């Protein structure tokens, strides 16, 4: 419904620019937040958890880029960036508490 309302105002280059930004920025945010959350949740030593959490981040970044260009609309292309927020909250919660307290 929303896509139909704004379809007349959005030129094609703007949709490509939005998808490119979603692929690069949203994919990076998602993979970074996923890595931080996974490193926080793994029951390993700190260094081992970071190494194990970093390995799937390369595949996740690639999947987020593919998702951005395979999504039905440019709005759906930004889904990984929206999913990065709760993952970042899990991964960076202790650092946030140190700053606030």
Write the layout of secondary structure elements.
Elements: H1 2-6, H2 12-41, H3 46-70, H4 74-77, H5 79-100
SS elements, strand count: 0
Distance between the termini: 44 Å
Reading the helices and strands in chain order gives HHHHH
Structural class estimated from helices and strands: mainly alpha
- What average pLDDT do the residues reach? 82
Q: Number of helical runs?
A: 5
Categorize the overall geometry: elongated
Low-confidence stretches: none
- What amount of the residues lies in strands? under 5%
- How would you sum up the major sheet? none
Concise account of the structure shown:
The chain is mainly alpha-helical. It contains 5 helices and no strands.
Question: In words, what does this structure look like?
Answer:
- With 101 residues, this protein is mostly helical.
- The protein is 85% helix and 0% strand.
- The protein has helices at 2-6, 12-41, 46-70, 74-77, 79-100.
- It is elongated and about 50 Å long.
- The model has no long low-confidence stretch (mean pLDDT 82).
Which features would summarize this protein structure in a list?
101 residues; mainly alpha; 5 helices; 85% helix; elongated
């Amino acid at each position: 419904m929303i896509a139909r309302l704004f379809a007349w105002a959005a030129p094609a280059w703007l949709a490509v620019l939005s998808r490119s930004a979603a692929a690069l920025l949203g994919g990076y945010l998602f993979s970074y937040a996923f890595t931080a959350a996974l490193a926080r949740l793994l029951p390993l030593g700190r260094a081992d958890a970071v190494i194990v959490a970093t390995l799937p981040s390369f595949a996740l970044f690639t999947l987020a880029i593919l998702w951005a260009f395979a999504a039905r609309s440019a709005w759906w292309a930004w889904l990984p960036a929206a999913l990065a927020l709760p993952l970042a909250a899990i991964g960076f919660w202790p650092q946030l508490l140190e700053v606030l307290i």
